[in-house]
Amino acid sequence: MNARVQPSAQSHQHAPSYYAASVNRSLSYPALAGEVSADVCIVGGGFSGLNTAIELAERGFSVVLLEAHKIGWGASGRNGGQLIRGVGHGLEQFAGVIGNDGVRELQLLGLEAVEIVRRRVEHYAIDCDLTWGYCDLANKPRDLAGFAEDLDELKSLGYRHELRLLQADEMHQVVGSNRYVGGLIDMGSGHLHPLNLALGEAAAAQSLGVQLFEQSAVNRIDYGPEVCVHTANGKVRAKNLVLGCNAYLNDLNPTLGGKVLPAGSYIIATEPLSEAQARTLIPQNMALCDQRVALDYYRLSADRRLLFGGACHYSGRDPQDIAAYMRPKMLEVFPHLANVKIAYQWGGMIGIGANRLPQIGRLKDQPNVFYAQAYSGHGVNATHLAGKLLAEAIAGQESRGFDLFAKVPHMTFPGGKHLRSPLLALGMLWYRLKDALGSANPL
């Protein structure tokens, strides 16, 4: 079987990915019909919306969640399944806005984000193949030097999980490839089946009294002290609104939409490998990710398939054949897989922000409208943190984390909806050229 999906295709079913083929539960929720009321209406049935709903319901709020397609239809159900510590990139750049103490707090929140996932899976007994162990891969000596700094920083933050720096001659311990000059093992990060996690969280939300509706695309929002959210066949009246659509926000709120760039990311899954093959590729069953701009990330599934992803596209144009596009990248890392078949290929949109920090806050002119978006490829953990912070803010609880994220300004991408992707694609081409040139001068 070689299942494929065009990432931009609109569907009322999950993309025919490996994840959709291996779900461990089948859930279906009705479309909204008529009028309902709640304390909070959430738009978006991915990790952001589901976890905000759980956090709010645990605090006693009535919640309605609207999803345009199926729960977990977007990036939450299609991503690489890597659960990696941290939020944002280069947090020191925000010291002028939130101070050094604020930067340290964001670093700590990036560690807490993974623990939120850990606790949620344990508390609700969600079967999602959660496996601990991750390794950052160094493409160049300067990457390895950066890992040493990361290790020292994590220790200064009181990180409680095992960390270990690997040199080039030790890399065979974690990956069966000669491509890397070193790595950083982190046993507090890992990997999981993202669609099974999303479906498990949907079941948890429903058990707490959250009303979930699928096939219920929002076509209009009436703002005010009470918001009214309209779908084709119904409407929701609520005191508060949460927009958790990320790359799929489209034109629902142009102000927020202009601050997040939808970018395509792609994954292939091989046929099941033998135990010996799998052990040769990734001996400790870790998630792995390199450091290039056009990064590679990969891991093994529970049934020993290699899931290989990357090739983030900012151009707005998707490959006609994802497998043909991604397979050569896989073979650069693992040339001995030349005779292994690709069983699944799929892609989807992730949300990128200009400064790579998740955008979590409330609208200035509508204080009862909250949002979370632009996770820039680190959404599995950051969405769960966002859900907690949004719930704290809506509940009126002290939330230093929400206040810190909300203070950071976010640029609107130039060029409008139609030109922002091509303009950014040109900029990213420059960084990729620098990456390539840097390989010749690795210091």
From TrEMBL:
Q: Which part of the chain is the FAD dependent oxidoreductase domain?
A: 39-392
GO CC annotation: what is one?
cytoplasm
The highest taxon in the source lineage is Bacteria
Q: Which InterPro entries match?
A: FAD-dep_OxRdtase, FAD/NAD-bd_sf
Query: SUPFAM superfamilies, alphabetically?
Result: FAD/NAD(P)-binding domain
Report a single Gene Ontology molecular function.
Answer: oxidoreductase activity
Q: What Gene3D superfamilies does this protein's entry cite?
A: D-Amino Acid Oxidase, subunit A, domain 2, FAD/NAD(P)-binding domain
Question: Which keywords are on file for this protein?
Answer: Oxidoreductase
The identity of this protein, by name, is: FAD-binding oxidoreductase
